[in-house]
Amino acid sequence: MKIVETILEVRQQVKEWRMEGLSVGLVPTMGYLHEGHKSLIDRAVAENDRVVVSVFVNPMQFAPSEDLESYPRDMDRDAAICEKAGASLIFHPEPEEMYHEGFSSFVDMTTLTGGLCGKSRPIHFRGVCTVVAKLFNIVTPDRAYFGQKDAQQLAVIRHMVRDLDFGIEIVGCPIIREEDGLAKSSRNTYLNVDERQAALILSKALAKGKALLETGEKDAAKICQTILDDIATEPMAKVDYVEVVDWNTLEPVETVARDVLVAIAVFIGKTRLIDNFIYEL
Ligand code: AMP
Questions:
Q1: Residue nearest ligand 1's atom 12 by CA
Q2: Signed CA dihedral, 133, 136, 138, 140: sign only
Q3: The overall pTM is greater than 0.90
Q4: Residue 217 alpha carbon to ligand 1 centre in Å
Q5: What is the β-pairing status of strands 89-91 and 50-55?
Q6: Average pLDDT, integer, range 134-140
Q7: Are 250 and 261 in contact (CB under 8 A)?
């Protein structure tokens, strides 16, 4: 497995693979890899001849008040995980490699990005779409792998690929959790022992919402309220949002009549955590 920092080196490598007729999968990440990332890499390795993992903490998707500086990084560990999983190449660029001086072109989506995480993170998806579009142009993969953990991101990327004709298959992968239910996340490392315990409220509250849906409840407000009431039992938790939205459009629904995404964002102390489930009718 190679680790490269320049766009040129990625292009040269992919060109060689293409001349051999090999298929290429891409797994975009911000590094500090865990089992969630590994599940994406495993799937990509199973479905493609060669797999590129990008490790890039993308400054464009962080607001000045957010955790760009403190975001955890450990390239040696990430490299070991990628190699063991069978990846062929890590692309680990510096911000200057991705954003040259005078960079001024952005991918701005006018639907799907305003609600859910977009409400409290208004510049986030512009940064995500722009960097993912760049990665798609650099790597030109056949398939790219994204986790349902970031469900809005998955929907947004699928939409972008359709809008801009990238011709890349987007593969959504299920949420990988700790044994006690907490969705794995690089940001879980911010939690102290008490916060880690309190963070269980996200998956517990979602389970209550899901159970209610499974009894036949269709009223989205009632489902949200059940989840909110459960989160309210945890004193360390502060809700950012609890929403039931159409899984295709991400528009809020009043009644569950199509596949829906039930998504939440909750602050545990200073750490903002997200979790969700998709309910298919
Ligand atoms: P990140 O490094 O947080 O930007 O995540 C990179 C990719 O890994 C994204 O597509 C995420 O949705 C996915 N991912 C992160 N955590 C998980 C998880 N617990 N289960 C499945 N996929 C995940």
A1: 147
A2: negative
A3: yes
A4: 30
A5: parallel
A6: 99
A7: yes
